[in-house]
Amino acid sequence: MRAALLLLLFVTLTVTAAAGKNKKEKHKPSPSGSGCTDWRYGNCVPSNGDCGAGFREGSCDQQTKKMKCKVPCNWKKEFGADCKYRFASWGECDPATDLRTRTGTLKKALYNAECQPTITVTKPCAGKTKTKNKGKKRKGKGN
């Protein structure tokens, strides 16, 4: 009985470890069995419009390949979808420009992307608050 339980536990652990390994390798760009180790990837280019599913090209020595990718629709064009930044809090409103700024430091560059080490982004000050109407007023309703 113990031997059967140990065998079952061993098989379960082996299957779980193999499944986890495949999951991790799936997200990494692999050289597809080639001997090349220095793959360089271009930016993800959406198939339609500015965002969504698309392709990125990779090259190494004389080899090239295309791989599927996705550009999030909330990406910032100034610094690209493959550059991930850690941002500080928004600064105070500058009355001269009516803008707030914050800086970001590079956290991760995906697919060997060329990213700026620090960036600054701006947005309009929140002086004017936008309110959404919860319901429309109807004129002339059954007086």
Total number of helices: 1
Got a strand count?
7
Q: Which series of helices and strands comes N to C? A: HEEEEEEE
Pick out the low-confidence regions.
21-31
Q: Which structural class fits the helix and strand makeup?
A: alpha+beta
Q: What helical percentage do the residues reach? A: 10-25%
Largest sheet: 4 strands, antiparallel
What is Rg?
Answer: 25 Å
Distance between the termini: 84 Å
Mean of the pLDDT scores? 74
The dominant shape is extended
What does it look like?
The radius of gyration is 25 Å and the shape is extended. Strands 1, 2, 3 and 4 form a 4-stranded antiparallel beta sheet that branches. Residues 21-31 have low confidence and may be disordered. It is α+β, with helices and mostly antiparallel strands. 5% of the residues are buried. The protein contains 1 helix and 7 strands, in the order H-E-E-E-E-E-E-E. Among the domains are: 34-74, Heparin-binding Growth Factor, Midkine, Chain A, CATH 2.20.60; 76-127, no CATH class. 18% of the residues lie in helices and 31% in strands.
